[in-house]
């Protein structure tokens, strides 16, 4: 991810201690830093890393009202006249600061752990691929249930149309026809009972991903921290106390706009009343966007500031998958035949020998990699089978809809003759 991406910027004033004056300019937030640029001179007066912040507070005094202070190491920075409001800026800065601290701790532990072998690095890559494939399988499974529900509904429609056809036949038959009353009474008595309603998938489905977000509803002056939860059937926005603010089913979402890699908006349109729209900002949003893109491929739109993120994410993704499998094949081969030389020339120096040793993986790592690859293969086969089943179901649905349309037209003509 590009660390120079500007997530947000706000007009404000900064107290420059060297001249003891307030300077107007813009406070900017990037994924890893906070910057302040003066309006008149364009000079960058403030530029420090989020991880160097010790404290962010809302303060005021007799001379300074509605100010925001950021304690960076031993220096205290004062910002005032924040637009649209101090609370908005505080919530966003605090969110990214806390997430940066958490990721820094995780990254430090991960760096210490990954300083070992290529095998652990490869295990991490394969584990990530497995998680993405599992998320895909969850979404496909839910889509398969939806197709099954559509098929049940179409079967019920066909049954109702058979009954309507018999009733029309009864009405069309002459009054002296002796079997007219039997044409429809028997089928009505033997009509199969309607199948049980669809099980509550909301209670059964699992959570794909849940991330902390800053929520904006319609106006920028009202923001609050909360959570975004992605299910296979839709998405849910809740507050910090896990109280649901709004749930969008997949069919309810009309469009999702990706403003930046860290900010999206979700909207449901209505006729005659205001749209339901939420704007969500999160440091973890890059993890959720690929899942949203998979679920709402026809409804998601990447705006200009997010197009670079799409290109940077999609192109290496193919290379990443290829490199994973190539690396797995090569490394596992090195375990099976550890005596095979990496290079053909003699007189290899100590550095090259050390590099060769580092590129080999242990038997335990190879065993773990094989297990992950086996799971990946099973998930891939299940996903492929589910896609084929959904293709067949879609063909059946199309055929049933065409047949129902013809029957409806035919019955309409018969009704017109009767009237």
From TrEMBL:
Domain T-SNARE coiled-coil homology: 356-418
Location within or outside the cell: Cytoplasm, Perinuclear region; Endomembrane system
A GO CC term attached to the entry: SNARE complex
CDD domains recorded: SNARE_SNAP47N
Recorded coiled-coil stretches: 355-393
Keywords: Coiled coil, Cytoplasm, Membrane, Repeat
UniProt record similarity statement: Belongs to the SVAP1 family.
Protein encoded by which gene: Snap47
GO BP term (any one): synaptic vesicle fusion to presynaptic active zone membrane
Keyword Amino-acid biosynthesis attributed: no
A GO molecular function held by the record: syntaxin binding
Name listed for the protein in its UniProt record: Synaptosomal-associated protein 47
């Amino acid at each position: 991810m590009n660390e120079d991406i500007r997530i947000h910027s706000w007009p404000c004033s900064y107290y420059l201690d060297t001249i003891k004056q307030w300077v107007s300019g813009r406070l900017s937030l990037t994924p890893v830093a906070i910057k302040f640029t003066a309006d008149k001179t364009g000079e960058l007066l403030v530029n420090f890393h989020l991880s160097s912040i010790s404290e962010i507070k809302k303060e005021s005094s007799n001379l300074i009202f509605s100010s925001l202070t950021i304690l960076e190491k031993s220096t205290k920075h004062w910002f005032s006249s924040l637009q649209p409001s101090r609370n908005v800026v505080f919530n966003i800065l605090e969110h990214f600061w806390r997430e940066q601290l958490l990721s820094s701790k995780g990254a430090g532990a991960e760096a210490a752990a990954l300083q070992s072998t290529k095998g652990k690095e490869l295990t991490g890559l394969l584990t990530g691929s497995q998680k993405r494939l599992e998320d895909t399988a969850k979404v496909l499974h839910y889509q398969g249930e939806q197709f099954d529900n559509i098929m049940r509904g179409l079967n019920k429609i066909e049954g109702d149309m058979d009954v309507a056809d018999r009733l029309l036949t009864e009405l069309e038959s002459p009054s002296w026809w002796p079997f007219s009353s039997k044409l429809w009474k028997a089928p009505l008595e033997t009509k199969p009972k309607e199948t049980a309603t669809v099980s509550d998938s909301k209670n059964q489905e699992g959570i794909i991903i849940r991330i902390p977000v800053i929520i904006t509803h319609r106006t920028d002056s009202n923001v609050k921290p909360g959570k975004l939860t992605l299910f296979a059937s839709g998405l849910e926005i809740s507050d910090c106390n896990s109280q649901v603010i709004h749930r969008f089913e997949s069919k309810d979402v009309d469009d999702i706009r990706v403003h930046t890699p860290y900010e999206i908006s979700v909207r449901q349109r209505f006729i005659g009343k205001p749209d339901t729209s939420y704007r969500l900002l999160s440091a973890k949003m890059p993890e959720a966007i690929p899942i949203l893109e998979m679920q709402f491929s026809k409804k998601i739109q990447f705006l200009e500031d997010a197009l670079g993120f799409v290109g940077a994410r999609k192109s290496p993704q193919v290379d990443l998958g290829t490199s994973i499998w190539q690396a797995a094949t090569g490394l596992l081969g090195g375990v099976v035949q550890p005596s095979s030389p990496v290079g053909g020339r003699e007189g290899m120096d100590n550095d090259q020998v050390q590099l060769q040793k580092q590129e080999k993986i242990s038997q335990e790592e190879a065993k773990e990699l094989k297990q992950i690859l086996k799971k990946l293969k099973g998930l891939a086969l299940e996903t492929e089978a589910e896609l084929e089943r959904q293709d067949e179901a879609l063909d059946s649905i199309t055929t049933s809809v065409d047949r129902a349309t013809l029957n409806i037209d035919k019955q309409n003509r018969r009704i017109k003759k009767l009237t």
